[in-house]
Amino acid sequence: MLSVLAKENKVPFYTVAPTSTIDLKISDGNKIPIEERTPDEVRAPYGHELIPEDFPVRNPAFDITPQRYLAGIVTEFGIIQAPFKDNLSRTLLGQKATKTPA
């Protein structure tokens, strides 16, 4: 939602993600598995009940921002800009190639 609002108002939008969360084998964002956390984190944060037990709640661990809304992805190796497929591959594969064994 925020990325759409930013795009409509010509404000650059960046996401922040460690490269350990990027899987180059996944062809598009619709195929990314999203962890579902316990609804109790939303219903009763820190043990303080806010929402009735019988009220339906979803609690995804994260959401996916379509790349058309991104100005870049901030990683521990710097900001990766479009085209993301090429630049993510170049950055991630380059970092693996330059890491020295422990």
Quick tags:
102 residues; 3 helices; Rossmann fold
Characterize the structure shown.
The chain is α+β, with helices and mostly antiparallel strands and 102 residues long. It has one domain: Rossmann fold, CATH 3.40.50. Helix content is 25%, strand content 10%. The chain is built from three helices and three strands. The protein has a three-stranded mixed β-sheet. The model has no long low-confidence stretch (mean pLDDT 89).
The geometry reads as: elongated
Total count of domains: 1
- Architecture, CATH level 2? 3-Layer(aba) Sandwich
CATH class: Alpha Beta
CATH superfamily: Translation initiation factor eif-2b, domain 2
Helix content: 25-40%
Count of DSSP E strands?
A: 3
> How many alpha or pi helices?
3
Widest sheet: strand order? 1-2-3
Radius of gyration from the CA trace?
18 Å
Mean pLDDT: 89
Quote the CATH topology. Answer: Rossmann fold
- Rounded to the nearest angstrom, the distance between the terminal CA atoms is 42 Å
Describe the largest sheet.
3 strands, mixed
Poorly predicted runs are none
Q: Structural class of the secondary structure composition?
A: alpha+beta
Name the helix and strand elements from N-terminus to C-terminus, one letter apiece: HEHEEH
- Fraction of residues in β-strands: 5-15%
